[in-house]
TrEMBL record:
CDD domains referenced in this protein's UniProt entry, alphabetically: SAHH (cd00401)
EC number: 3.13.2.1
Record-linked HAMAP family: AdoHcyase
Keywords: Cytoplasm, Hydrolase, NAD, One-carbon metabolism
GO cellular component labels: cytosol
Protein name in the entry: Adenosylhomocysteinase
Reactions catalysed, as given in the entry: S-adenosyl-L-homocysteine + H2O = L-homocysteine + adenosine
Compartments reported by the entry: Cytoplasm
GO terms assigned for molecular function: adenosylhomocysteinase activity
Keyword Hydrolase part of the UniProt annotation: yes
InterPro entries in the record: Adenosylhomocyst_ase-like_sf (IPR042172), Adenosylhomocysteinase-like (IPR000043), Ado_hCys_hydrolase_NAD-bd (IPR015878), NAD(P)-bd_dom_sf (IPR036291), S-Ado-L-homoCys_hydrolase_CS (IPR020082)
Uppermost EC category: hydrolase
Annotated substrate binding sites: T64, D136, E161, K191, D195
Gene designation: ahcY
């Protein structure tokens, strides 16, 4: 979709694919907003109260229609925000264009950007000298600590919405490098119960289906990892008629998967029976050389964890004599053994590389947490401990209350008698 937009009329700093894509992006952002009533209510309050006035924010997120609504809410709150992509394949170029043209928000993100461009954009985000970093995987925070320690005194705090990012932040704190508060948005119940389980479950399969157009019913789908994301993927795959196998390293999670009715086995065994493999562990090289060597001819491999390290593509390249795109975002590796392995989205987040990411109604709660976490950091500046800090319970509860209200669902409240009983220790049998 093109328009008569003249690039020279856009004064806000940006580095995007094509500013003339803005009208389509605007339409899609507004469509997503319909499914984000909680964030919309927060944005309206922010516009009236301006709780982030004078605050510089660097946001490193997937540049999607849902993220756009978060960026708009932060600007409404008075923040001076810049946005970069948290994954080279997750940017929606029309959305980036609309944020720049229609909302005057600096965006540095291009779908398919190479690693050098991605890291340059991280540096550009830090050149904004942020007070708050809204992170997705902690790349910006890590770069700050490693290469821009002089900026740390200006940092009020960060917010992090991925399991992978929190793993890095906890390791950073253990090493004495995280000297400011990092709000664990990912651990909010209204985030991981819903975003990770229902969002990842649906959007992962959406990406695989869009990329391959295969029937899932009757296929053996191997889900690596049975955390909240893995539970969602396994549940949705079974709902589509797949025969689901789970691999795990955590004995408690493995028992849970078995009790939920899934077959559980090591990846060495699963590699021999799987038709489709989906990694959601947040760890490195979950699928590696020995697994590729024993997979069926034509096995499909996809990743829905944050980074593209879960699948050892270096080993796969070494085993292969050629690789070619057979569909959009779908590469077929011809192994020297004569078999082939198909990789979707270059091993990056399949739901964003090959589809549109999580549905807006799920991201409504996740980004409501992000917005309120930023407000919480400003309100409590100087009073929070260094390290990973849980999001306040009352914030979590308020987001759930607003979501229920938007859904037209009512729930019970405690009677005075029940409140008294819960606060008493003398009543019993």
């Amino acid at each position: 979709m093109s328009t008569t937009i003249a690039p020279e009329t856009v004064t806000v700093k940006h580095e995007i694919k094509d500013i003339t894509l803005a009208p389509l992006g605007k339409q899609r952002i507004e469509w997503a907003s319909r499914e984000m009533p909680v964030l919309r209510q927060i944005r309206d309050r922010f516009a009236a109260e301006k709780p982030l006035a004078g605050i510089r924010i660097a946001a490193c997120c997937h540049v999607t229609t849902e993220t756009a609504n978060l960026a708009i809410a932060l600007k409404a709150a008075g923040a001076d925000a810049v946005l970069i992509a948290s994954n080279p394949l997750s940017t929606q170029d029309d959305v980036a264009a609309s944020l720049v043209y229609d909302h005057g928000i600096s965006v540095f993100a291009i779908k398919g950007e190479d690693n050098a461009t991605y890291h340059r954009h991280v540096e550009m985000a830090l050149a904004h000298r942020p007070h708050i970093i809204v992170d997705d995987g902690s790349d910006v925070t890590t770069t700050l600590v490693l290469h821009h320690a002089d900026q740390i005194p200006e940092i009020i705090g960060t917010t992090e919405e991925t399991t992978t990012g929190l793993v890095r932040l906890n390791a950073m704190f253990k090493d004495g490098k995280l000297t400011f508060p990092a709000i664990a948005v990912n651990d909010a119940e209204t985030k991981h119960f819903f975003d990770n389980r229902y969002g990842t479950g649906q959007s992962t399969l959406d990406g695989i289906i869009r990329a391959t157009n295969i029937l899932l019913a009757g296929k053996v789908i191997v889900v690596a990892g049975y955390g909240w994301c893995g539970k969602g993927v396994a549940l949705r795959a079974r709902g589509m008629g797949a025969n689901v196998v789970v691999t795990e390293i955590n004995p408690v999670a493995a028992i849970e998967a078995a009790m939920d009715g899934f077959r559980v086995m090591p990846m060495d065994e699963a590699a021999k029976v799987g038709d489709i493999f989906i990694t959601v562990t947040g760890n490195k090289h979950v699928i590696r050389r020995e697994h590729f060597e024993t997979m069926k001819d034509g096995a499909i491999v996809a990743n829905s964890g944050h980074f593209d390290l879960e699948i050892d593509l270096v080993a796969l390249n070494d085993l292969s004599e050629s690789a070619s795109f057979v569909r959009n975002f779908t590469q077929e590796y011809q192994l020297k053994s004569g078999k082939s392995v198909i990789v979707i989205g270059e091993g990056r987040l399949v739901n964003l590389a090959a589809a549109e990411g999580h549905p807006a109604s799920v991201m409504d709660m996740s980004f409501a947490n992000q917005a309120l976490a930023c407000e919480f950091l400003v309100k409590n500046k100087g009073n929070l401990p260094a390290g990973v800090v849980p999001i306040p319970k009352d914030v979590d509860q308020e987001i759930a209350r607003l979501k229920l209200q938007a859904m037209g669902i009512k729930i019970d409240t405690l009677t005075p008698e029940q409140v008294h009983y819960l606060n008493s220790w003398t009543e019993g049998t």
